[in-house]
Amino acid sequence: MSSTAGGESTQQQGGALAARLGLSAGMVVQELGWDNDTDDALRVAVEDAIDADMVDGDYGNVVDAVLLWWRDDDGDLVDMLVDSLTDLADGGVIWLMTPKVGRPQAVDPADISEAAPVAGLSTTTTAAVSRDWAATRLVAPKHR
Predict the structure, then answer these.
(1) Is pTM, for the whole model, over 0.85?
(2) Which of 117, 72, 68 lies closest to 97, judged by CA?
(3) Residue 45 main-chain phi, psi, to 5 deg
(4) Of the chain's two ends, which shows fewer C-beta atoms within 10 Å, N or C?
């Protein structure tokens, strides 16, 4: 276990991160867009928080949250967001993980703001979740 400058261990930081993302034991989280540039420490923190491995796009069952890694050259964001809704439970959340501004393949925040409503989603929160990645919380409007 390593320590940070603030004295927190990596494990403590991971727990705090999972809490910020609203993830807890027993939840099913689907991971989409994984590649060799994703943040492994963040992935481990998520899996530790849910006490299970994340599932992939072939899962075929309902999930509580989607962790979507997205880069500027990955294609059409609206299409991917719509695809991300396929297995998402009512009330579920999509965490759109994008490289931070100034990093290679960073996504313009305006692109996210424009794509979300077209896909039927609302942007609620954006947070720095690692040195190179930011997370944007997207949710579907509540049905009445």
Answers:
(1) yes
(2) 68
(3) -60, -40
(4) C
